[in-house]
């Protein structure tokens, strides 16, 4: 039985967010799913998100917003494409047909349209529709979270911040999920480099809800971007008990913890977190966030000179089924790291050739359009670097380095590609590239003072080029 604290038909109506169903149980289960999405936690006492979805669909099989949230969460998870997954394509079609056949609210119709656009890869259009919902319904948390994720995938950092800022005055402390707005807003602030304000807002959120894993994650980012390793390590250690149960984000928080150790040069400690937490959780969940974190972590360690070959082969078992998904370029690049690391030439070729085919006929898919000028050159640079063609990798990456943001993700996540350019430039036999490496390191030192990793790279560059 779903707890009475979740909102029924009347409660949603009272908040000016009516749901087109007569089933109180379906409304409450919708709320339970939304709550787990926002809190990054599968609540097993409720049956987790999957259990709640099944129960909601049983309570009202024709509940349009029930289909929107269930299908939307799978789409936004980016682990599957309607082009390859017939079940997902069928679920999307069912939602669209139900919306056409029923007298639902304009807000609900916009949700259906946004989901359709996202499924086609039209992420900017989907975000525009979610923003349109928020103009009239600023307390629609599903629209807010879907927009936040969409902007994240697009690398739209300012929009990610402002979409939350403009709705904040409409939220009141008594409203369900109010405290979680702090962490969501904080993340937009830090991605636009307002680090002091981001930390302040995130800690306000933690004061209200200590187990808010996203606020913890935001503070972890602040320490990462400032190279405050000791502060970061202490913060993660003292808060671990609060967020380790947030199964949808815990892996990512452990990844941040490991980054501090990589920054310090304590590779054994980083590998311990990888083996005990990141890889374990990645295999268990199959979630794309967990998977790309595992890929990125091994690649960073490999660039630092750490041997991780056996781990690449293990991780390849997770990424191999996704080589032709092509939902996000960000994901593709991380899958490619793994096939290269595992020396799986067939998977590497499959990823690159299938992506090239989509680039030739991208239609309205934003990611496939972007692949021609950003995605494929970045993929090719990974391949060239792996083959020891360092100067070619530099030539591919240098002209687009200010466009890395367009593949999405956070500044911290994309830093792996900035590091790749530095390593390639250092190893290139061209003097111009070696000078570029030193310039890039000066830039890095200015943006992130007191970084041990930057200091190590500067020493390595000096030793190579003296």
TrEMBL record:
The record's section on CDD domains has: StaR_like
The answer to whether UniProt assigns keyword Repeat to this entry is yes
The keyword Repeat appears for this protein: yes
Arranged from A to Z, the UniProt key words for this protein are: Repeat, TPR repeat
The record's comment on protein family reads: Belongs to the TTC38 family.
Could you identify this protein by its name? Tetratricopeptide repeat protein 38
* High-level lineage: Eukaryota, Metazoa, Chordata, Craniata, Vertebrata
């Amino acid at each position: 039985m779903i707890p009475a604290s979740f909102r029924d038909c009347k409660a949603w109506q009272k908040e000016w967010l009516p749901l087109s169903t007569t089933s109180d149980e379906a409304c409450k289960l919708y709320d339970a799913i939304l709550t787990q999405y926002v809190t990054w936690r599968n609540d097993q006492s409720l049956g987790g998100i999957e259990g709640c979805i099944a129960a909601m669909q049983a309570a009202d099989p024709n509940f349009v917003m029930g289909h929107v949230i269930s299908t939307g969460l799978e789409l936004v998870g980016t682990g599957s494409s309607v082009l390859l997954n017939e079940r997902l394509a069928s679920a999307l079609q069912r939602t669209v047909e139900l919306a056409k056949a029923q007298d639902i609210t304009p807000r609900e119709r916009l949700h259906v349209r946004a989901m359709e656009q996202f499924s086609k890869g039209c992420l900017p259009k989907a975000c525009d529709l979610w923003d349109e919902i928020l103009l009239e319904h600023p307390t629609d948390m599903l629209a807010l979270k879907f927009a936040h994720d969409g902007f994240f995938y697009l690398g739209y950092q300012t929009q990610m911040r402002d979409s939350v800022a403009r709705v904040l005055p409409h939220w009141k402390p008594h409203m369900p999920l109010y405290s979680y707005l702090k962490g969501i807003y904080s993340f937009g602030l830090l991605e636009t480099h307002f680090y002091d304000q981001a930390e302040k807002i995130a800690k306000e959120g933690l004061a209200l809800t200590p187990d808010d894993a996203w606020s913890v994650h935001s503070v972890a980012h602040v320490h990462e971007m400032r190279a405050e390793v000791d502060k970061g390590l202490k913060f993660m250690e003292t808060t671990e008990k609060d967020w380790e149960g947030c199964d949808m984000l815990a892996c990512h928080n452990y990844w941040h913890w490991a980054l501090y150790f990589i920054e310090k040069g304590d590779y054994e400690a980083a590998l311990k977190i990888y083996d005990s937490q990141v890889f374990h959780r990645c295999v268990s969940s199959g979630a794309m966030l967990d998977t790309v974190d595992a890929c990125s972590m091994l690649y960073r360690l490999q660039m630092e000179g750490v041997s991780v070959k056996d781990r690449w082969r293990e991780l390849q078992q997770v990424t191999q089924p996704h080589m032709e998904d092509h939902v996000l370029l960000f994901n593709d690049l991380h899958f490619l790291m793994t096939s290269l690391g595992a020396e799986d030439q067939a998977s590497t070729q499959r990823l690159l050739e299938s992506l090239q085919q989509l680039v030739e006929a991208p239609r309205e898919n934003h990611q496939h359009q972007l692949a021609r000028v950003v995605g494929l050159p970045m993929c090719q640079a990974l391949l060239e670097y792996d083959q020891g063609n360092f100067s070619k990798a530099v030539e591919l990456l240098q002209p687009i380095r200010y466009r890395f943001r367009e593949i999405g993700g956070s500044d911290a996540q994309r830093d792996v590609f900035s590091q790749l350019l530095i390593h390639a430039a250092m190893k290139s036999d061209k003097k111009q590239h070696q000078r570029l490496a030193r310039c890039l390191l000066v830039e890095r030192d200015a943006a992130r003072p007191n970084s041990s990793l930057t200091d190590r790279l500067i020493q390595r560059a000096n030793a190579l080029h003296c």
